[in-house]
Amino acid sequence: MTSGAIAFTPGIKADGDYTNYWIRQVVLRLRREVSWCWHERAEYVSAEPGAFPPFTGRISTVLDMTRFADEKRRFFSTDPTARYLTDQIQALPLPAENLQQGSFCWVANNEGLDEISAFALATGLLSAIDSAAGTVMACCMNDPVKTCPSFSLIQILWDDPAAVLSLTDPRHPLFANGLLRYVNQSLPGSEYLDWDAPLSVPPLVAR
């Protein structure tokens, strides 16, 4: 990642260091996941320099998640690119709070958002402000049509997958206050929770 870059598209960033901190957390984790996709799908990768990791059978990928969990952790700590991104994720300093009304920081403080909640909101916000993010998200979810964030993507990116379960409560501030919503889906907490349902930050909220 180029020094000073926040999102994938050059020049795209939010107002406020606190907001950009969380967006950059999302971008760094997406980049790290793509590096794993290159490794995981090595036998299918084109010989063309810079080729994007190809999409493969999703069933085999899902079934292999547990089998390769330890290998993935080792990869994140030993592969030069993945290790660099891991170091960046861990070293990224959380800016001082700026509680200007309406800001990301103000909302997080007002609604008592924990880290996973702030990360989920930033994932939706990145998708809302950066047109290039969808392609990367689709790669990480191994599905060319899934260009929007989802609970399944957040679970892939976050260090503690179980923590994502807390977001599925319909009374969660993200959904109760309209900060994050399902696209053409019922609210989480209904009889059927679709982990792959697209999540979005409404344009008014994003602005």
Topology:
Layout: H1 17-40, H2 58-63, H3 69-78, H4 80-91, H5 104-111, H6 115-129, H7 133-140, H8 151-157, H9 173-176, E1 181-182, E2 199-200, H10 203-206
Antiparallel strand pairs: 1-2
Helix pairs in contact: 1-4, 1-6, 1-7, 3-4
Quick structural overview:
This protein has 207 residues and is mainly α. It has one domain (17-206).
Detailed description of the structure:
With 207 residues, this protein is an all-alpha fold. The chain has helices spanning 17-40, 58-63, 69-78, 80-91, 104-111, 115-129, 133-140, 151-157, 173-176, 203-206; strands at residues 181-182, 199-200. The chain has one domain (17-206). The chain contains ten helices and two strands, in the order H-H-H-H-H-H-H-H-H-E-E-H. The protein is globular.
